Amino acid sequence: MNIDKIQDDLEQLMTAGKVKSHEYLKDHVYTKMGGKADILAAPATYDEIQKIVTYAEQNGITLTVLGNGSNVIIRDGGVRGIVLQTAGLTEMGIRDNLLYAQCGAKIIDVSRYALDKELTGLEFACGIPGTVGGALYMNAGAYGGEIKDVLHSALAINKNGQLVTLQGDELQWGYRKSVFASGEYIVLEAKFAMTSGDVLTIKAKMDELTYLRESKQPLEYPSCGSVFKRPPGRFAGQLIQESGLQGTRIGGAEVSKKHAGFIVNADNATASDYIGLIHHVRATVKDKFGVELETEVEIIGEE
């Protein structure tokens, strides 16, 4: 693969300065971990995304989509091919009585925008650090709410570069997953079906959830959020705590002393540190309780 040629080709398709080669992804993601991307492309429009997708498909180049990486661990060997980062597409507004937001907008910002417009339904998302695209990808949720509860439809692009609108059963919602996890589509835009509400009531709920999050979660460190899915009838954090693992470290990665369900980047952790600690936690909990913890975080890239 001729990386210089790919960079030159993409620069002809995109805004100047938005294509970089051999770029460390740790400098572009929430977790502050990750090796180099062969090519990092940051499109500014849907048209540019279409061009990148079509180019990658026609040339047999692996394409990886990345938001702000708040629920992704990128291995230290980096990512081959093209990494398409959507963080620059952040527009949101009201259209046809629906709240719409582009894929790179942070879902926190969308929940605040809904508050400004006196719309209720996204209060649960006021502390989720991911983008709209990432939130749809994994059906993000917190405090009893999930994206599927409020999503009306999604504008997406398929592998052939064609625009499609998905809604209802087409979205294939599940616990921390959706049709987008199949890799067949890339989210471009979400439309949310909201209802009018009292601004003081909406704000009070958001303030309450923000307090709960700030008091219980280790927000002072980079992390990928809650690492493990909730096992049936149990809580991952409780199992980890009762296994005596809080404060356990491998390199710069640490099982949070504040919330056992979080592994934090406490001191310039590498992805190898983080993944090694995940394996240690899983093995310890399995040995002590017979419970197989399943990761919620996605791990991508090369060793």
Radius of gyration: 20 Å
Strand content: 25-35%
How would you name the oligomeric state of the polypeptide chains in this document? single chain
Number of helices: 7
How would the global form be characterised?
Answer: globular
Major sheet size, sense and barrel closure: 5 strands, antiparallel
Average pLDDT number: 94
Give the arrangement of secondary structure elements:
Blueprint: H1 3-13, E1 19-24, E2 36-41, H2 46-59, E3 63-66, E4 72-74, E5 79-85, E6 92-95, E7 98-102, H3 107-116, E8 119-120, H4 132-137, E9 141-142, E10 145-146, E11 151-158, E12 163-166, E13 185-192, E14 195-196, H5 199-216, E15 223-226, H6 236-242, E16 249-250, E17 253-255, E18 262-265, H7 271-289, E19 298-300
Parallel strand pairs: 2-5, 3-5, 4-19
Antiparallel strand pairs: 1-2, 6-7, 7-13, 8-14, 9-10, 11-12, 11-13, 15-18, 16-17, 17-18
Structure description:
The relative contact order is 0.13. By secondary structure, this protein is α+β, with helices and mostly antiparallel strands. The strands form six sheets. A five-stranded antiparallel sheet has the order 6-7-13-11-12. The chain has a four-stranded mixed sheet with strand order 1-2-5-3, with helices on one face. A hairpin with a 6-residue loop joins strand 17 and strand 18 (262-265). It starts with a helix and ends with a strand. The protein contains seven helices and 19 strands.
What's this model, at a glance?
This protein has 7 helices and 19 strands.
Give a quick set of tags describing it:
alpha+beta, four-stranded mixed sheet, 19 strands, 303 residues
